[in-house]
Protein 1
Amino acid sequence: MKQLSILFILLVITLSASAQGSGFGYMVDFGGSTFSQATSEYDQVIRSITQNGFIRFHSASGYNALQLMIGYKKENIPFQNFSDFLASDGNEMMQYNTDAELNREAWRICMINQFQFGRKPGRLMYSFNTGLFYERTIQATRNDYNGDWTYDLQQEIVPHNLGMILGAEVRFNWFTIGYKIEKLFWDVLDHDYILSQELNLSNSSELRGLKLNPWMNYLYLGFNIDFYSEKD
């Protein structure tokens, strides 16, 4: 993370020196996914909120910009697992009967290319966005609704991940409203580890039906200030 921070700072300095204009601001993303496995044994929902601070650098024409963003994400993931399995003694059929939730927190760094049109930056602009992001899970827990059984996800988590962004937004002077979809390249859960565990009611094998990298849908709101000066 330290190396990424240094690279981020150097990139900001380089872009600042060559940009025709720049901007900064704050955005909050609201969204998630209703993806579920094609079976009644498993169910899941992902609800996500991400708070972002960003800076962007406009090209000489004003019709392209590079936006660099740092965000903090919190996810709430209610899930159910009602699948049957044979106990380790090979005689008794058991069922998970799980109704619980995961809570995950992560830091993220995004690099977004913005194709802009409309009036000049700082006025009315429309933008189509494509980008990549790095995400680092810093905490994940499994919580029972009645507080009977809670545990931290450690070996069950793949902490480092990359993803892609596609979206569009409208900026009215200093206010932004937009929509985007995101996709992590790898599942946040380490399913190799989860599947290696004995099927049991007292371990994290209950997570085997989850998928934590589906397509995510977001609406976002933001406040931004852009400075742009045309050169002759």
Protein 2
Amino acid sequence: MYDNNPLTFLNLRRLPARVDYQGAAYLLNFEVVAIRALVELGYLKPLGNPKGMEHKYFSSRTLLKLAEDEKWLNDASRVVSKYWAEKNARRNTGRLSHSQTAPTNRKTHTTLEAF
């Protein structure tokens, strides 16, 4: 379809009618993982109602309209930041609770030289 260079993609004479996560990321100037988060949070809807891990496509026309909508961009930026903050907090909480439950008094192993 197009190469992975955003400048090549954005300089196409005519954009494809539908794009995948990478194309959506180029058009909205978000990272691909942020586009996935926006889909998961319901801020972006893929075409055709795909299930689970099916390949997802987005309407270029809709993405360009969203790119001009300052309120949507503000909301999307805010929810992506919140999404990653919450995800990182859960990950850090998991690490803390794991280290807190780990035994602090470990039995040391003797080596053969000790005999």
Protein 3
Amino acid sequence: MDKKLKMETLAFVLLLVAFPITSWGTTAGNDLVWWIGLISLVAGGLVPVMTRYMDHSGDMIRDVGMEFDDRTS
């Protein structure tokens, strides 16, 4: 996996985890847990923007098109 895919997977996981953590922190009245959820939500939203400005010169270039499709049909 290249760096961009790893970072976007991390962002997706952060966004998935942020909502239950924030909800639990709100219902339990625990401010620390609520802040952790909010920080993970913000980080999950900012990571894809950061990947736009990463150095992609070392990424592997793949051919695109039906003839290069790896899926079985």
